[in-house]
Automatic annotation (TrEMBL):
Location in the cell: Membrane
GO MF annotations, alphabetized: transmembrane transporter activity
Name of the protein in its database record: Predicted arabinose efflux permease, MFS family
Membrane topology term: Multi-pass membrane protein
Coiled-coil segments: none
Domain of life where this protein originates: Bacteria
Amino acid sequence: MPHSRMSLLTTISCMAVFFAQLGMMMYLPAIPSIAQSLNATQSLTSLSLPVYLVGMAVPMLLWGKWGATWGIKPVLIASLLMFSLSSALLAVCAQIETFLCLRFVQGLGASGMSVMARSLVAQHFKGDQLTKVLSWLSIAFVISLGVGQYAGSILMSSFDWPATFWCLAIGAALLAGLVHHGLSECRQTSNTPACWGHYLTIVRHAPFLRCALMGGLGYAIIIGFNTAGPSIFQTTYEWSASDYGVLGWAMSLAYLLGSLTVNRHVLIRGQPQLSAIATGIMVVACIVMIVGVMTTPTCAALLWVPYCLIVFGQAISYPISLSQASDHSPVSGPYSMALCGLIHQMIAAFVGVTVSLLNVQNPLYLAAICLLLATMVRGLNPIKPGRGSE
């Protein structure tokens, strides 16, 4: 594949993932302000994050089938336009019920963006090379963590919360234009006929399912932390919205370092060794977090520093799990990435809703949830040191 085409595919995929994640992260520092503006409780407003995740999860199998039927380009454009329109409507929303409904629709669009972005690279790369390219998507994800929360806090302070959604609307519309003009020569359809039965075939394949669950549970740690995080840091530790926004940069740096570690070392050290190291780091960091908040409950650093180590481990583990899931899939085309996305979003949405409904305000409870999820990730790790990837 020509280098210029590979760069174009990677850039478009990264931007699609970037905006899908921005929709999740950018408004978080403004949650207390949104709750006040819409005359809603902060707990109810916090449901907008898991609602977004449910919106991402519900249509993922449909996006995969549509991508196989009509091609990645038109489906990606449609999802970008849906995301853009719903973001614009969120900016002018005045009721919490409407806000939550529009967050669901925004999640629907983000779902298509995420599935098509990963399907685009999965079509053209395999094995360790796919892991390397997926690490670039992880870098886009991590940049959205830092840029999203920090930019969201700046926009909130300068222009109030609707500005965050206007930025998302304009950015997604511009990306749709780039896709329209830039993907004209990309292969758009899979050689595998479109069929719902392919999903059942894939999910019954144990090696695929283990890898998909591993990625989803690790992703759920980030979602669970960010669901409870704004309230815990701004209430328990008395941080401002700007302070919490700055924390996004620390999380971004951790994820960036993990993604760069995969990008640099996966072709040399291989997936088994990196995956074992990453999942081990996640478990140890969770233990350190629990001990820290138990011994010094007033020190916020003992919560967020171990969390950054968890994020570092997840940044290494996640692209490896996606690559393994794609390679283990018994069916080609967008199906495996769509099913991975569904599994990941359903797990994340379940954890997000659970954390929100339990109204987790105690840092120790949040640390315990992180440890439970990290232990499950470690237990599901399908590739052990000394074994090559299948």
